[in-house]
Amino acid sequence: MQLHIIDINCDMGEGQSHHDCEQDALLMPYISRCNIACGAHAGNDFTMRQTLLNAQGYRLKCGAHPGYPDPDNFGRVSLKVTHQQIVDSVLLQVQKLVDIATELGVALSHIKLHGALYNDAEKSSDLADLLCQAVAVNYPKLSVLGLSGGAMQHAAKQYGLDFLREGFMDRAYLASGQLAPRTLPGSVYQNPQQCINQVLTILRQTPLPTLDGNRIELAVDSLCLHGDSKIALDLATTLHSELSQAGYQIQ
User: Fold this and answer.
1) Buried b (16+ CB within 10 A) or exposed e, 76-93
2) For position 229, what pLDDT does the model report?
3) pLDDT value at residue 197
4) Domain boundaries of the chain, sorted by first residue
5) Could you tell me if 212 and 218 are in contact, meaning their C-beta atoms sit under 8 angstroms apart?
6) Please, are residues 165 and 212 in contact by the beta-carbon 8 Å criterion?
7) E strands, the chain, where?
8) How far apart are CA 72 and CA 126, in angstroms?
9) Are strands 215-216 and 208-209 parallel, antiparallel or unpaired?
10) How far apart are alpha carbons 42 and 73 in whole angstroms?
């Protein structure tokens, strides 16, 4: 059986305590890349440091996961601020993680936006352009991890940035290729097998059913597992087993 390599990324460091970091670490044997909250939508200096150390132990690729500085809403609500204010905030967040990573001797590999900011950058080509321009100027060696076929992918290409096309195993899509808003019934999957079926559909490049009754095809370099979901650990362990049986290796 031919072995295929697949990258699984997971948002981490979104708690506040050592216990939260220990819970994140339970997922680390089953992923290959972690996106670490930078203290704005969630996390703090301690969780950034501990998550980097834990990830280093599992030889994971580490990246920055900046979002709207709105912990009360977990960065899942769009803020009415200027595009330049968003860019400035993202750069401050990334630099905070860069500084801690440098102190620990950990090299960062990528940047992935969080929550509402991730979605807003896909809805606004101007915002995507400004963000990718800022990354190209300040962190040109970091890859950008973002929605497959979206505005960030186009902007990253314009500025010569490496782009990793992301797919989601636990979220429904719309015919536009955008993620279905969390407010829509059925947009967030709660059944591990439903998530695994979506992963295999994407990997086999079979048209994927959308929440609005259509089908789309996705080309992905990385698949996201949301670490804060109630089914995360069950999904991670079952997915690891089923992917192995199907000839895929998480790496």
Assistant:
1) beebeeebeebbebbbeb
2) 86
3) 95
4) 4-250
5) no
6) no
7) 4-12, 33-37, 61-65, 108-111, 143-147, 163-168, 208-209, 215-216, 222-225, 248-250
8) 27
9) antiparallel
10) 10
Phi-psi region at 150: left, alpha or beta (left = phi > 0; alpha = psi -120 to 50): beta
Task: Tell me the residue type at 62.
Answer: C
Average pLDDT over residues 223-234: 92
Q: Assign 228 a pLDDT band (cuts: 50, 70, 90).
A: confident
Q: For residue 2, what pLDDT is reported?
A: 60
Rounded Cα distance between 148 and 162, Å, is 13
The Cα–Cα gap between 152 and 197 comes to 27
pTM of the model: 0.95
Q: What angle do CA 38, 121, 62 make, to 5 degrees?
A: 35
> Each residue of 123-162: pLDDT tens digit?
999 999 999 999 999 999 999 999 999 999 999 999 999 9
Instruction: With CA atoms as reference, report the closest residue to 114 among 198, 206, 36.
Output: 36
Averaged pLDDT score across all residues of the chain: 96
For residue 69, pLDDT over 90 is answered with: yes
DSSP 236: H
Say what the pLDDT of residue 114 is: 98
3-class secondary-structure state, position 98: helix
CA distance 103 to 61: 17
The topology under which CATH files domain 4-250 is TIM Barrel (3.20.20)
Angle at the Cα of 127 from the Cα atoms of 126 and 130, rounded to 5 degrees: 90
